[in-house]
Design goal:
The complex is a heterodimer of chains A (264) and B (317). Chain A has 264 residues and is α/β, with parallel strands linked by helices. Chain A is 38% helix and 23% strand. In chain A, the strands form two sheets. In chain A, strands 6-7-8-3-9-10 form a six-stranded mixed sheet, with helices on both faces. Chain A has a four-stranded antiparallel sheet with strand order 2-1-4-5, with helices on one face. Chain A is globular and about 60 Å long. Chain B is globular. In chain B, helix 2 packs antiparallel against helix 10 and helix 3 runs antiparallel to helix 4. Chain B has one domain (11-234). Chain B is built from 14 helices and no strands. Chain B is mostly helical. The chains are: A alpha/beta (264), B mainly alpha (317). Chains A and B meet through helix 2, helix 3 and helix 4 of A and helix 8 and helix 9 of B.
Amino acid sequence: MPLLKVSDMTKTFGGLQALTNLNISVEEGEIVSLIGPNGSGKTTLFNVITGVYRPTSGRVIFNGDDITYLKTYEIIRKGISRVFQTTSLFLNGTVLQNVIAGSYIFSGIRSFEDFLNTPSTQHKRQAREERALEILRSLHMVPLKDVAATNLPYGSQRLLSLAIARSIQPKLMLLDEPLTGMNPSEKAETIDLIRQMYEKDKITILLVEHDMRSVMDLSDRIVVLNFGEKIAEGPPEVIRDNPKVVECYLGGRWVSDKGRGNVA
Amino acid sequence: MGKWWWWVPIPVLFLIPVFTQDGYYLGIAITCFIYIVLTLTFMLMMQVGLLSLGQCAFYAIGAYACTLLVMKAKLCYWLALPLGGSITMAITALIFIPVLRTRGLFFAIMTLCISAIVAQIAGNWESLLGGHSGIKAIPKPTAIGTIDFSSRVHYYFLALIIMVVTIVVMARLARSHFGITLRLIRDNESLAQHVGINPFRYKLMAVSIASFFAALAGGFYAPYAKYIHPEVSSIWDSLYVQIYGIAGGLGYPIGGAIAGTVVLKIIPELMRVAQIYQPMFFGAILIIVVLFLPHGLVSLPGLIKERWSGRSERLGH
């Protein structure tokens, strides 16, 4: 049974067909990449999976449960986390507070208990903070822990949003263009982090990314979308040689030294 | 905020009646206490990003509920006070389930409307709520031993206790998991949902808790004034509460509420001799605060300290 199964998914916005009868499944322990030109429906698919949009028709099955019509926070509690395309952080909080916020579900802290400040809640708060520090340590961000998120440089903000998504302890993580706007060293660090989450935390990953070299490198399987439809699916080697994919997305020169896709 | 000296003024306030029993000063103090409670509840809602312009609606519902429980149901006042608060909480929760679907200024306008609607209902429901002439001759709170509420000092202590309880609860809420979560939602509601927070639940809880304490203040006001009328749910007073909060400093849910209310309530009071100019002074203070202290009155000591100690450091750069 696949961990995530999106079946016959259709989403229209007025007359615009954003997704058309899309079928995608992700097995546990896979890294699946979703590629396609801008506007091909990748982010819409993420929004449908996390309950931000309601699909026009179709189902989303996660881990055996139908999550199609659940609210966002309920879907997250089932074990899906998401990193947004545009960096989304708790900008008023510090780095540490952001990561702590990510462990909202797993900390098990109850409002009333915490209001009374019982020993058990103190213990949970301490455990939560230690875990958050551990995550920051793996990102080499401990020295920044008291910096306000809004004052971080862009690359660190992206990393921090990954750290929040990781501290949710999900089974499946949806990454929406995690490498955009990063310099090479930040890219390397992020890819390293994605690998770490995949190997150490056993998180299954569904990745949207335009950086072809990283996509080919990371993924077990690639799904190609165009105008809301799946036009190809398969392992990286196969996708690379698929004429339809090359035509609509990769272009002839994609294996140039820059390694970037020709994004229209 | 967690420093112990923050609590020093409270025993001092308990000792004030030893020095003066002047009804005028005690009256000002009592009004201050009530408005501090209302501003604190405003600040609680503000922490989750809900701008309320209808704090007095809760206050009025609480005043009417408590009075009816005492006069119609013949309950003991000390039972009616928290029960009135709970009834207000239930009514508020029902009203706000649909209202919380709105956001930002739309929400603010909704609360303003609720305030007006409460006044309309109170004004037109003659059989139960006494209509526009209100409910008169509200009995004193049930006597406890020698405390029979024959003197204003007794009311002073009751108002002070209600305020202290509210401050303690609000301070604890703001510092605990609940308050932290509220501020996460205000900061980034979409991300809050994506870490598993149910914003609706927290907003509803914040509004309900706010309404409970505002209703306690209302339940105090009814026997203190001996007379309640639809204008208790006054839009103007709700707007004042909002201004106290903003002037005090929205970033300081406790200190800001107290500082804003005390300064903006007492300074116009000192201008009593020239009553017609009172709103002018009020306006002037507000403009000065907004222009020069964007983080509110509470940030003033910090700014002064920074000027004093920061000068040498800045020269070093």
